Structures are given as C-alpha cells and as structure tokens.
Amino acid sequence: MSNSEVSIFLQQHPHISTVELLVSDLNGVTRGKRIERDLLEKVFNEGFNLPGSVMALDATGTTVEETGMGADIGDPDYVCLPIPGTLAPVPWQGEDRAQALFSMYETDGERPFTKDPRQVLVRVYERFKQLGYTPGIAVELEFYLIDRERDANGGLQPPVSPSSGRRMSSKQVYSMDDLDEYDFFIRDVIDTAHAQNIPADTVITEYAPGQFEVNLNHCDDPLMAADHAVLLKRCIAQVARKWEMEATFMAKPYIEEAGSGMHIHLSLMDAEGNNIFASEDPLQNPYMRWAMGGLIDMADGVQALLAPSINSFRRLAPDAFAPTTKTWGYDNRTLALRIPSGSIEATRIEHRMSGADANPYLAVAAVLASVCEGLTNKIDPPEPVEGNAYDQEHPSVADNPRDALRAMDRDPRVKDWFGAEFIEMYDICKWSEIRLFERQITPLEYELLLPYV
After folding, report:
1. Which of 9, 27, 84, 176 is 20 to 30 A (C-alpha) from 326?
2. CB of 30 within 8 A of CB of 22?
3. Distance between alpha carbon 51 and the CA centroid of its chain, in Å?
4. pLDDT (tens digit, 9 = 90+) per residue, 347-363?
C-alpha cells in the first residue's frame, strides 16, 4: 500500500487513533501489534518486526521449540509488510480503531518468509498460474453461536435470542424465523464486513441449533479470497463478543450435532474468460474430471492441512454432511467434492473437505495444488457417486491426525508444493499438539474406569 493510500485513509477517518497490525499464524489465529496513528505511514513504508516463532505455535500459543524457530536461533525478528486493501476501520471497537493484515518476509523485506502460511499460498499460486487459467474462489464459513453461560453440566449451549427470549433447541435448517431472531447479529456482521472491504453477502441457518453459514463473494484472486476468510472469521468472533455471545469455528463443538466446515468453490477461466468446467454434462467434461482426479489423488496427502487438530477429525462422522470418503459427483452433499447445480456458466467444484478450523491460506493452497496436479497429469478420477455415499463403500480419508500426518509425509508432492521447510515445521507442531491432547485424562475416563478397573 502506498503512502498516499494511507494518507487518504487517515483523512477519511480522522478519529482513528490506534491501528492493529495483524498476521495470521499457522493455525489461522491473528497475532500482531498495536501502533498509534502517527506511526502508520512509517510502518506501511518500512513494515514492522515480529518474531518468526509466531509461525511455530501450538494450540496453547506456545512456541514449539523442536521446530528450531525459537530459543535455539535466538528467536529472531522478521519483517512484516502490509497487504493492500486490508487497512480498514474496526467498528466493534468504536471510531478510534483500525486494522490491517500483514505478511512475513525475511529481514531484507524482499524474500518471502517460507514458513508464513500466506507466503505458502503465494508460492502455490505462482506455480498454478503457469497453467494459464484464472481461478475463481468463493469461501463459505460455518460457525456456531454459543451462550457465554454454560448449561447445568458445564457444557456448551446455544444463546438465548434477546428478541424472543427463546434458546434454539432444534435444527431448523434454513429457518427464516431463526434468521429473524438473530437479525441484529447478522446485520451487524454484514455491515461490519462491508466496512472492512470484506465481500460477505449471504447468511443462512445451518443444520444444528445456533449454527450459521456466511458466504463470501466470488473472487478471482486466491490470495484475496483467503485474506477475506481470515478477516471474516475475526469479524464474526468480535461482533459476537460485542453482543455478549461467543462464535466458534471449532470443527465439532457438539459431538451430537453437525460439524462446521469451510467449503471452497472453484471455477477456472481461460484467457478469453470462458469457464473451462462449463458443459452440458460436467461429469464428462475432461477438465472437470482431471481436476477431480487431482483432488482425490492428493486428498490423503493434504488431509492434515485441512483437518489441523484432534477436534477436526470429530467432524468427519457418517451422516453428518462432512466428507469421510474420497468421492465426487453432481449436486450431492454426502460427497467430498460436489458439482453444485445451476447455470452452465457457473459450473464449479465445491470442495467440502476442510474444517472451519483450517487455515484458509493452507486450504486454498491445497485445492489449487491438487487441481493443478490433476490437470497437468490428466489424472482420471473414480466414477462419480450417486445416492447416499455414507451407505456405500468408497476409499476413506484418514479419521485421525496420526494417520493424516503420516500420509502427508509419504506424499512427496506436498513438500514440493508447500515447501519442505514449511511442511517439516507443520509436522513437528502438529505432532506436538497430538502429545499435548493425549496427555489429558478426560472426565469420562474417571467416570467409567476409576470405580471399576
């Protein structure tokens, strides 16, 4: 972003006194610093420093020292530079706060820091562009609204609507009444998103009490599409807090209810602006088939990136509208890869494998890399699936993080696309998290085992 753009922004927002400088870490959590207004032009010109170890944090926010990113090398700083188009007000903080998204570089400010997930997507997209196609990306995010007050057993529960005093207790998918009851929140999210140049447009109630989905508009820049998803998650969480609720993008906050996914829609345009997936019968379109073939062929290798935590794998349950098998087909939500119905010109792939907890940069990168492999190598997919895939036998994806990480290590294409250094760091961090969660003794173990074993 140029200094003139910063000057224009400050002129348009004279009440801004503090600016939040945000960087998305390995887990998609925003971290960074706050500065005062008079430092903004300097920071946008020169960047700001942040330890590279923020990209090697576990679920507790602690540096995983085994990555070699912390004390062993002195925990050095790297330079973070602004992402154009992301400087915007922060309405939930009043009139005096703004924010901007940054990405990490080496200290020379020229070379990308290869362990920044956004720079991973930059790497993948630069290689993808060699195909000569422009990807159109649209992201859908599912999330739950949670009451700050826990239930009688200490568990999560949906919030109470301030308009009716009613707590959601049934699924009521696509319910207009539930949308009306939470219109105050939905309007605030959409208005706040638009104030931050985030193109959110549609909200629906989803398949569980308190579960919603927000759609982002189609974008022909995958980096911008992922930036929007990162910022929208922050927007939703903060607006919920403003209304004394919590919003969670956990993949499976309730074991008995549907999980939350991040669905990525992809179309590809040629040099003349034609959608190469468009055809009367998309199931027989060779470009569609090769793209699906690549997504299925690399599904095992990228599963650990799309399901980043132990909780992520709880979402992958049969009959819960989350994909458990490597399947594709037309207008079928029991599949991992769906071709939505609609006009021929809008033919696209809906990638349904990512949890809502996945890092958007890594999820978009996984889709692009897999599609590129399929198109380049003309990988044929299995036959498209009709009917309920949960009632059929199909090759499955990993149902636990150990198998997913091992599959990632076995696929040399993942290191080739994402960078060996990044994958090594990711691998170490996620094995560290597995050990962290497995060292816990659950209340159920005490209840069922302590009195009897």
Report:
1. 27
2. yes
3. 23
4. 999 999 999 999 999 99
Mean pLDDT value of segment 163-183: 72
Please state which architecture CATH assigns to domain 126-418. Answer: 2-Layer Sandwich (3.30)
Predicted confidence (pLDDT) per residue in 322-354, tens digit: 899 999 999 999 999 999 999 999 999 999 999
Q: Write out pLDDT tens, residues 59-78.
A: 999 999 999 999 999 999 99
pLDDT at 174 over 60: no
State which H helix or E strand residue 188 sits in.
helix 183-195
Token duo for residue 39: 């430092």
Residue 254 to residues 188, 260, 431: CA-CA distances in angstroms? 26, 10, 24
Helix 183-195 / helix 222-242 crossing angle, nearest 10 deg: 140
DSSP 8-state assignment for residue 68: S
SS3 89: strand
The two structure tokens encoding residue 440: 């816990």
**Band of pLDDT at residue 415, cut at 50, 70 and 90:** very high
Which residue ranges does the chain devote to CATH 3.30.590.10?
A: 126-418
Give the residue range(s) of CATH 3.10.20.70 domains in the chain.
3-113
Overall average pLDDT of the 104-124 stretch: 96
How would you write 91-126 as a 3-class SS string?
A: HHHCCCEEEEEEEEECCCCCCECCCCHHHHHHHHHH
- Provide the β-strand partners of residue 396: 325
CATH of region 3-113: 3.10.20.70
- Size of the chain, expressed as the number of residues it contains: 453
Report field, pTM of the whole predicted structure over 0.85: yes
Closest CA to 118 of 81, 148, 88: 81
